[in-house]
Predict the 3D structure of the following.
Amino acid sequence: MNRSLWTAATGMGSQQLNMDIIANNLANVNTVGFKRSRANFVDLMYQTLQAPGATTSGATNVPNGIQIGMGTRIVDVQKMFNQGEFIQTGNDLDLVIEGRGFFKILRNDEEVYTRAGAFKLDKEGYICDPEGYRLQPEMRIPSDAVNISIDPQGNISVIGQDGTEIASGEIRLYNFINPAGLLSLGRSYYLPTEASGEPIEGTPGEDALGTINQGYLENANVSIVEEMVDMIVAQRAYEATSKVIKTSDEMMQIANNLR
């Protein structure tokens, strides 16, 4: 069987998966706190017909050798945690992390992490995310609060109707040695893994953690132009490898028709 058929097929399969990744990036272009993904490719094993440096009959060494590649595959899909653009909302509970770090959310007795800072108040007055899960450590806002102030270090000050502080708290941030190793759960949630390392708790603005800005949200770090260029490249690569399969089939047909 013609080796090029199977080699080209690996290229088509990889580019199809690459297109799926690009499609997900584009679909989430307006998702708060979303981080784009990037496919990383590697070549497959090689058939060595003659090893580089092999000795010839003339007692000389072959400078290059003969190695035939078997195609490609996607080795991993990497989350890119570069900063997204900031959107000014003016909402007291919309928070953005400028720099590294994650918010911690308690979801059904499971601690998860997120960059999406579109927080609300639940029926008991606790700060929670749009899914209703509470920000950790928990902070309750009294019902008679008229103003909520959060400084870049995460200190919360709640002002009552008489102009005095009626409650205070602190927002903590969490960092990871390898954020790309986090497990994506969907809904902007991430779960620590052996690859990401354990969460490192800290105060915003200290120990390489970012600061908190109130009244802003972090948009997805997806560039539509970049994704469109990647999509064109993937499409052309898919088209080229499909032509390899077609050409290989025609060559086999010519060989079969030899008299």
